[in-house]
């Protein structure tokens, strides 16, 4: 199995690059973000490789890091997500943003991927929610709060405060992070109005 390729960029196709390694040209399929980050033809490149062997073909998928390749594998553990959809997701969201979106149950962010509808986005978020926090760079308290909201277990003042911030134009993850911080400083008995006031302070920092 091929795990890594280091060579010179020969040419580009619509969703792949030809990487010249010692005179042998390897066709490597990549996410759009990966292709955009690679150098012009003639430039040197190193790609982490995922090798797919089938009866009729051997297909190579390339990534800028082992971390990105790991997400490619993880995404395909979700029902209905194959290599093409996994590459499309990674073309829309870099690994850290994807981990954050899943940890925060932000289905809308995942659904921005072309070809990924609300149902597939929901499956990605729900099936990978226990794995994503390990890769995310968000506050664990925010992850916990997002999970509680998703499962209808969050206190009413908290959900009302988040809803109020969303109505003011803030994104759901942004609002959840602000109210999580507000809730931590105000305590469990805080009322909605207090949480909104403290949440707005957090957002203005």
UniProtKB/TrEMBL annotation:
Belongs to the RuvA family. It holds the Pfam family RuvA_C. The gene is ruvA. Its main location: cytoplasm. It is found in: Cytoplasm. The keyword DNA damage applies. GO terms for biological process: DNA recombination; DNA repair. Residues 150-205 are annotated as: Domain III. Residues 1-64 are annotated as: Domain I. InterPro entries: DNA_helicase_Holl-junc_RuvA_I, Hlx-hairpin-Hlx_DNA-bd_motif, NA-bd_OB-fold, RuvA, RuvA_2-like, RuvA_C, RuvA_C_sf. This is Holliday junction branch migration complex subunit RuvA. GO terms for cellular component: cytoplasm; Holliday junction helicase complex; Holliday junction resolvase complex. Residues 73-92, 108-127 form the Helix-hairpin-helix DNA-binding motif class domain. Residues 65-142 are annotated as: Domain II. Keywords: Cytoplasm, DNA damage, DNA recombination, DNA repair, DNA-binding. GO terms for molecular function: ATP binding; four-way junction DNA binding; four-way junction helicase activity. Homotetramer. Forms an RuvA(8)-RuvB(12)-Holliday junction (HJ) complex. HJ DNA is sandwiched between 2 RuvA tetramers; dsDNA enters through RuvA and exits via RuvB. An RuvB hexamer assembles on each DNA strand where it exits the tetramer. Each RuvB hexamer is contacted by two RuvA subunits (via domain III) on 2 adjacent RuvB subunits; this complex drives branch migration. In the full resolvosome a probable DNA-RuvA(4)-RuvB(12)-RuvC(2) complex forms which resolves the HJ. Has three domains with a flexible linker between the domains II and III and assumes an 'L' shape. Domain III is highly mobile and contacts RuvB. The RuvA-RuvB-RuvC complex processes Holliday junction (HJ) DNA during genetic recombination and DNA repair, while the RuvA-RuvB complex plays an important role in the rescue of blocked DNA replication forks via replication fork reversal (RFR). RuvA specifically binds to HJ cruciform DNA, conferring on it an open structure. The RuvB hexamer acts as an ATP-dependent pump, pulling dsDNA into and through the RuvAB complex. HJ branch migration allows RuvC to scan DNA until it finds its consensus sequence, where it cleaves and resolves the cruciform DNA.
